[in-house]
Design a protein that fits this description.
This protein has 123 residues and is of the alpha/beta class. The chain is built from 3 helices and 7 strands.
């Protein structure tokens, strides 16, 4: 799969995706740091990359429609979570992505579960 990581994620997380043979770029790789959410989302659309972020703004499906995209993954760690918790959320995301497609969907990834929204449904 093709992913693009937001600047609010540690750059070291790129290696987690690469270890599982995913094509991954970070917003920093393309010198998009500081760009608007819309510009980031549009870059992901153009490149057919799944957007991965901690930013809840991307969960607004009226502004950032997952249908027609390569997918949106929002990581929701508990408050004051350390890097190991974030890493676990990424690992859970990649485990599910190996079994089901994120394309056209919004995934909200939390410690205990992953909520999946698609075309007017939420699982």
């Amino acid at each position: 799969m093709r992913f693009k990581l937001d600047e609010n994620l540690p750059i070291s997380f790129k290696a987690l995706f690469e270890a599982q043979h995913h094509d991954v770029l970070t917003i920093r790789d393309e010198v998009l740091s500081g760009c608007s959410d819309r510009d980031f989302f549009d870059a992901c659309l153009r490149e057919r990359r799944c957007l991965v972020s901690l930013d809840l703004d991307f969960s607004d499906i009226t502004r950032f429609r997952p249908d027609g995209s390569a997918g949106i993954v929002i990581l929701r760690p508990p408050k004051n979570a350390d890097i190991r918790i974030l890493q676990m959320l990424i690992e859970n995301t990649l485990a599910l992505a190996s079994k089901t497609s994120v394309e056209g969907r919004l995934w909200i990834v939390e410690i205990s579960h992953i909520r999946i929204h698609q075309a007017g449904k939420e699982d």
